[in-house]
Write a structure and sequence with these properties.
Helix content: 10-25%
Distance between the termini: 30 Å
Oligomer: single chain
Structural class: mainly beta
Number of strands: 5
Strand order of the largest sheet: 1-5-4-2-3
Strand content: 25-35%
Number of domains: 1
């Protein structure tokens, strides 16, 4: 699976302890309140998590391959071009 950044599903949220359900939308690998961990959507939102390199990444289940793949928050491929200021003007 070239180009995928994948990670196994953690057992539970490192903040609230909620068990992750394999059929849910995903989880966040992020830095909240100064510490890195795996977090549920509610804790990520409640603690004002940010997505991006050095902040956090969102992993979601890709049903076609059964892996949790990074879908937001960082470069998912090493050769993917980074958007320029000009790309943002069209949004």
């Amino acid at each position: 699976m070239k180009g995928y950044v994948s990670k196994p599903l953690p057992k539970s949220c490192d903040l609230c302890g909620r068990t992750f359900d394999p059929t849910t939308a995903g989880f966040y690998d992020a830095r909240l309140d100064g510490r890195w961990g795996d977090y549920c959507r509610e804790c990520f939102s409640r603690h004002y998590g940010r997505l991006g390199v050095g902040f956090g990444q969102l992993y979601q289940l890709d049903k076609s391959c059964g892996l949790y793949v990074q879908t937001a928050g960082g470069s998912t491929t090493s050769n993917k071009p980074k958007p320029s200021i000009f790309d943002l003007e069209d949004l």
